[in-house]
Design brief:
2 copies of one chain form a homodimer. Chain A is mostly helical and 175 residues long. Chain A has 2 domains: 83 residues, Winged helix-like DNA-binding domain superfamily/Winged helix DNA-binding domain (Arc Repressor Mutant, subunit A), CATH 1.10.10.10; 79 residues. Chain A contains 7 helices and 3 strands, in the order H-H-H-E-E-H-E-H-H-H. The first copy, chain A, has a two-stranded antiparallel ribbon with strand order 1-2. The first copy, chain A, binds a DNA duplex (30 and 30 nucleotides) through helix 2 and helix 3.
Chain lengths: 175, 175
DNA sequence: GATGTATATATCGTATAGATATATACTGGA
DNA sequence: TCCAGTATATATCTATACGATATATACATC
């Protein structure tokens, strides 16, 4: 799913600026589903405009920087439908944290404990945010909640076991 | 977590070739935790060798292409420890599928049903593979299992509800 | 008065993903 | 038997993506 499609999707829900598209991937229903950055969004919007899939209208704002609002065209709706009809790529979970835990035996136990606690807090913080906002698509929102909840639950219920396992393995090495 | 660190981590568990490092991120315990490609691995191995963090020994093989086996150095173990001690980035879940489901109202219902069934099968297939292999790190392996299981369970238990919701929303539009 | 956050666009360099090229050997089906 | 597909193995190329940075204004907070 390239950035052009991501932008087109957001704009299909209503005219938006690059800044607002970025926010949609941070706050709104798209959070934790896909990620993107200004470095990809702005060039994508320029390309979409050139291809006639969106139109741009500059908006002068009082007390705010000028805003460029992009609106989807009929051709844009067609292109979005085509892109969404292609077989979706595999779901990918990427975790610096789990990679680090894979090598926890190399790290001081108190550092591992700190990392575990921080990640539990991170998941719980996100869960609280997600639970308070209902998201625009209940099915997608619910899936995010289910996955994050299981991650938080797993970390909480296996934290001590893992730390115990690490320290007992350490003792064996010391012997 | 850059590719150099990913390679260094795998090599720290035992000497490995670029091909074997790739496999570690596809089959072994690192599957579903982090992803990388030859386009990143081979340049990373070259850089690691130049920096003296790994050493390369060419291995001629009978009936197989030559293999370059990389072994970690003491400096490499130090560099790995330093990299693992840095604060880990946020966990990121990226799903073409969920992004598509976010716009399910634009797609034919039977196509949405097909996508749901395929994704359920995909999660269940992965779960079966993960359950049969025990992984080298029980904690990390267990987290992967927990998350995938919750994803599969969620999709199975909300599939029909979602499809019903889509068709009823469709009827409202038609009226 | 200084610092931080929010709004808003844009670009730059590096890193990454994914496809492709090359080569050999084995396996399974038509 | 031949052909296609899969597995082993390295390497590179291009397009894209990420993350940091620059710029500018306004507002809140300390």
């Amino acid at each position: 799913m390239d950035t052009k499609t991501l932008c087109l999707g957001v704009i299909s829900l209503g005219a938006a600026s690059g800044y607002e598209i970025k926010k949609a991937f941070e706050e709104d229903g798209l959070n934790h589903i896909y990620h993107t950055s200004y470095g990809s969004i702005y060039p994508a919007l320029t390309a979409l405009t050139k291809e006639g899939l969106v139109v741009c209208s500059a908006m002068a704002q009082e007390k705010r920087p000028d805003k460029k609002v992009y609106t989807i065209t009929e051709a844009g709706r067609g292109a979005l439908l085509t892109a969404l009809s292609a077989p979706p790529a595999e779901d990918k979970f990427r975790s610096d944290f789990l990679f680090t835990m894979f090598f926890a035996h190399l790290l001081p136990p108190q550092h591992v404990a700190k990392l575990l606690d921080e990640r539990i807090a991170w998941y719980e913080g996100n869960l609280a945010k997600m639970e308070s906002s209902q998201g625009c698509n209940a099915f997608v929102h619910g899936m995010g909640l289910a996955v994050y909840r299981s991650a938080a639950d797993y970390l909480k219920s296996h934290r001590q076991e893992f730390l115990d396992h690490l320290s007992s393995a350490d003792k064996l090495v010391a012997e």
